Amino acid sequence: PLLEVLRDGRVSILPGNRDFLLGNSSGLKLVRPEELRLSLGGRRVILAHGHTLPEGDWGFKCLHAVAWPLLRRLDPRLPLAFKDGLARRMVSASQVVRPLKAVIAPDAARRLGADLVVCGHLHRKIVTPGLIVLPAFVDGGEYLILERGEWRFSL
User: Fold this and answer.
1) Terminal Cα distance for the chain, rounded
2) CB distance 146 to 116 below 8 Å
């Protein structure tokens, strides 16, 4: 059922750092490159997973630049059990490393020529005038709503 919904032409997927194999799934509409710039209520907004935004975190940036393209090429040849195990190890590693090292600068929107950046990746909720970082959905089910020009979190 989930893949059916994701293949609906009205749904666009903003891929994150663990979604590098989605490009090999037919019928999915992926946002490329890894961010979407748009105007909402007269404000310049960037929607992004956020894995390209943190300062520092050089180990992850190297992994993203080198390993992801390699894994995309190998994907059709890799057994599902191997890919599942790799995904689980990556999730476990990011839960340990990311909260300690990754930081998105509060002025990221200004530096990127926008009024607001909305992203995830850090898996912890941050709200400043120019930056909204979404918490991990699995940690409480919170999601972000834009209603009448105002952003708010809901359950």
Assistant:
1) 22
2) no
How far out from the chain centre does Cα 56 lie?
Answer: 17
The answer for residues whose C-beta is within 8 angstroms of residue 137's C-beta and 6 or more apart is: 143
Instruction: State the pTM of this model.
Output: 0.73
SS3 1: coil
Count of residues in the chain: 155
SS3 category, 43:
strand
- Per-residue tokens: 130: 């120019």
Nearest to 47 by CA among 106, 95, 114: 114
| CA distances (Å), origin 147, targets 40, 69, 109 | 11, 38, 21
Between CA 44 and CA 26 the distance in angstroms is 31
Give tens-digit pLDDT for 14-59: 777 666 666 656 777 777 777 889 998 889 999 988 877 887 767 7
